[in-house]
Structure formats: structure tokens, C-alpha cells
Amino acid sequence: MSKACRICHLIVEKTANMCPSCKTQDLSSEYTGEVFILNPEISDVAKRMKISKKGHYALRVR
Fold this sequence. Notes:
mainly beta, Rubrerythrin, domain 2, two-stranded antiparallel sheet, 1 helix, 5 strands, about 35% strand
């Protein structure tokens, strides 16, 4: 099971202690939904989630 950052929703490895994107340690293993953002400049999902970097993101993090 992976973890997701509560701030930027980036999904990281379960052994990670820090989000590589926003440098916070606020990670959770409780998240629902996943989305891969390949081109954030033209993605409507990325714009709605306020994502500016490509990657693997959780839709909702608890």
C-alpha cells in the first residue's frame, strides 16, 4: 500500500517519510481514487486539482 501527501495529493512509496514534491511529512495511507497526470498544462483534471507537475495523485486523502 502506498501513501499520499495530504497537501499536494502526490502518491509516494509506503516507505517514504517525506513528500518529494512539497517537502512535507504529512502523509496518509488512507486515500481514495487515483489519477495519472501526464500533461498538467492541458489537463482539466490537473487544473481542477491545482496540479502543476506530472505524476501519480490521489483524488481524496484522509
